[in-house]
Amino acid sequence: MIKKAVIPAAGLGTRFLPATKAQPKEMLPIIDTPTIQYVVQECVDSGIEDILIISGKGKRSIEDHFDRNIELESRIQEKEDEAIYNQLRHIENMANIHFIRQKELNGLGDAIYHARFHCGNEPFAVLLGDTIIDSVIPVTQQLIDSYEQYQQTVIAVETVPWEKVSRYGIVGGTKLSDKILQLTELIEKPDRDKAPSNLAIAGRYILTPEIFPALEKTQRGKGNEIQLTDALRLMMKTESIVATQIEGKRYDIGNKLDFLKTTVEFALRRKEFSKPFEQFLRETIKRLDEQVK
Ligand code: G1P
User: Which CATH superfamily, name and number, covers 4-254?
Assistant: First the structure.
């Protein structure tokens, strides 16, 4: 049974400057909801309510977001806006959220190493705080299902275009079933000609406690950082790892174009915006087309 989740959210967000100069990228909202709230909701929807967020400098607003704000609540209550009031109460009560600060930014592997005392001897889920995955079955639940079947470390993967393999951790292995791969190779951001496949690590994992001694031995890798992918490769010498091809659509919020696409797509799906927003988009495109002619 997986009872704990870790959400690394300490990164600087350099791909989203200047917006992230003084605010965490994980708090950038898709319409009205910060990215990290979608990620916490995925944990909750997967049956996990004990969440450790790895935060760092300039990330205080994440803590505030999941805390209670009594002054704001009473103001909203006076206005008798029940829907918003209920949303505020929901956010505070979503899960038991703990925080630990990563004092130096030494990479994703180092961030996960900060969870060793919190997770102890139990397997745990990892969800990257800047990635939303929209799916019928929450992706973390899909990984938990694989973990229950194989009792091994599970990594979420998805097919990416070959020209993008150097942006991701890439895996290689042999098929155990339609969606499951027994891994033999793991490599962080390889050049295209060194990639064993175009199956990319998709920001969700179930890790066993064996990852911690592996992280201790992991040397700095890509970007001079301690990479989780490198620790997993080291661990694979003694422990088996499977990859699950996820069913869902991944949105990388840390990247400006994907952020825009996500906002448009989510807005088109929201009942109160879908019609007027679609009309606005059509009219805008038509007007811009006419200007070009
Ligand atoms: C991290 C991981 C990488 C993974 C990616 C998914 O990289 O190190 O293996 O494919 O997330 O989003 P980052 O994007 O943080 O550089």
Answer: Spore Coat Polysaccharide Biosynthesis Protein SpsA; Chain A (3.90.550.10)
